[in-house]
Amino acid sequence: MKSDDPITNLVSAFARLPGIGERTASRLAFYVLNEPDSLADDIAEALMAVKDQVNLCERCCNLTQAETCSICRAPDRDHSTICVVANAQDLRAIENTGEFDGAYHVLHGVISPLEGVGPDDIHMSELLERLQSADANGGTEVQEVIVATSPSVDGEATSLYLSKAIKPLDIRISRIASGVPIGSELEYTDKSTLSRALSERREL
Amino acid sequence: MLLDALRCRRFRNLESVDIEPHRRFNILHGANGQGKTNLLEAIYLLSAVHSFRNHTNAQMVQFGRDSATLEARVDRGGHERIVRIEISSGGKQVYLNNSIVRQLSDFFGTVNVVMFGPQDLSILKGSPSERREFVDDAIFNAQPAYATEQQHYDEVLKQRNALLKEPDPDRALLDVYGEQLVQYGADIIMRRLDFIEHFSPVLDRTFRRIFDPDFSASVRYDMKWSSKLQGIERYQEVSVSRAEIEQDLESGLEATSGTERERGYTLIGPHRDDLDARLDGRPVGTFGSQGQNRAFILAMKIAVITYLEERYHFAPILLLDDVSSELDRQRNRQLFDFLRQRDDGQVFITTTHRDFIHLDEDLKVFEVDDGKVIDA
Ligand SMILES: [Zn+2]
């Protein structure tokens, strides 16, 4: 609900962000209010730009400013191996380990009937297309899929569902090893644990 | 397991409480509504991080205040720890030795309590969920990982039920949740079977010793849905493997797949199971007298303590909420005989009448009056 008071509106807008409660939201709002105009301008501009200029890579659904992302365009990466992640933060976490030189596929979510998210609501069909035709994967045939959704219940369900869909395609499919503590988010998993989980993946 | 010091701030009607409990018996004495049970609730919270009275976070904070703090110094086998919980309407934050606890699974097991209050006296006649809770609390006390397993099972169950409510559920996804339900469900059933196998003989021994040497008391795990192993009888008598349970769950899901689609929820699994309590072979909830029922429950609670002591070598803190007024004179005596005979073990007892409490040494009495607790 919108109020007539711009401060109230800003507080409730901040409070909609994850991890920000009412109190922090109001601290942020008053901070912005008391700083010079340039801060508000910069934030507003950056916020608009991120929605305007960032779109999904047409191949892997990663966030990009171009049609395809820099990873999909990189000639020295192994495009026959695709690591499937739930979101762009997880992609970044795996990139930061420096242990993976294949391509990615970003689902932008995990399956959750409770939240009304079914298999068609995450970018699975794009992935299946890439697996079925080399054309949809920039000309390289896919040899292996590594599912790196988090080991939470929803991440596991998504992984199981994917493996059922991929099995008939006769492509090797593996799951990152369970070194990652159950229920934790990949984003917050330390680098060495994540590298080990990748290298010790098991076939599904 | 010892609670050396307890501090409550703005918790329900307890504005400011600092006590140093006795290592054995602590009697919380006062009229009704003064805050005795709130004190037990505080100790329980420091163990389980939720209220046994189903209070919301906001209800736990003193009226008109933003937050409540509970803090305790606990000693387990000479190992001292500071446990703190900050409660506000927005949630709870747990601290262990002044560091934030990010995963509750890392915290559970730090403080062990067994609670016995008037609400427990009806569990044999109540719904199966009350008996499952008895089993689960006992397991959870010694095996904190069980909390995570239960949470996983619960999540799968909710997802699966949400899917079953859809007009045209995705078949493959239903299979996925079926597989997960079998996996996580088997985890829970294995733990419960293991507990009951070890617990039932302790219960029998306890009942015969305290109440009547001529009666046999037993509990069995009841899975009515289990077709192939025919439920309780075989599960009790032969040791079953995890694979058999998984198979049983799988065929159970298959057999009920039509009905669950119609009703929109999962019909079989550990969330529907029960504890079958028997006195001389007869279900005590339905056939036992009220006196037998209460004796049986009292024996169950005492047996849980004995079970934890014998199998895991620690004595949980016992919280007794005004049970003496609910037990007849003889059973009340029997309860205190048991408590006095133990070598060790810390106990907190609330009461309105000091005469109910048959203890005269190793104790401290705290007077509870209008939210104030005074070392009397
Ligand atoms: Zn891309």
Task: Describe the protein's topology.
The complex is a heterodimer of chains A (204) and B (376).
Chain A: H1 6-15, H2 22-34, H3 37-53, E1 55-56, E2 63-64, H4 70-73, E3 78-85, H5 88-97, E4 102-106, H6 124-132, E5 144-147, H7 153-166, E6 172-175, H8 191-199, E7 202-203
Chain B: E1 2-11, E2 14-19, E3 25-29, H1 36-48, H2 57-60, E4 67-76, E5 79-88, E6 91-96, E7 99-100, H3 104-107, E8 113-116, H4 128-142, H5 145-164, H6 171-210, E9 217-222, H7 232-237, H8 242-255, H9 257-263, E10 274-279, E11 282-283, H10 284-287, H11 290-312, E12 317-321, H12 329-341, E13 347-351, E14 363-369, E15 372-375
Parallel strand pairs in B: 3-13, 3-14, 8-12, 12-13
Antiparallel strand pairs in B: 1-2, 1-4, 4-5, 5-6, 6-7, 9-10, 10-11, 14-15
Bound molecules: zinc ion.
Descriptive notes:
The complex is a heterodimer of chains A (204) and B (376). With 204 residues, chain A is of the alpha/beta class. Chain A contains 8 helices and 7 strands. Chain B is of the alpha/beta class and 376 residues long. Helices cover 43% and strands 23% of the residues of chain B. Chain B has 12 helices and 15 strands. The chains are: A alpha/beta (204), B alpha/beta (376). The A-B interface holds A 21, 111-114, 118-119, 153-154, 156-157, 160-161, 164-165, 181-184 and B 90, 103, 105, 148, 151-152, 155-156, 158-160, 162-163, 166, 170, 172-173, 175-177, 179-180, 184. Bound molecules: zinc ion. Zinc ion binds next to α4 of chain A.
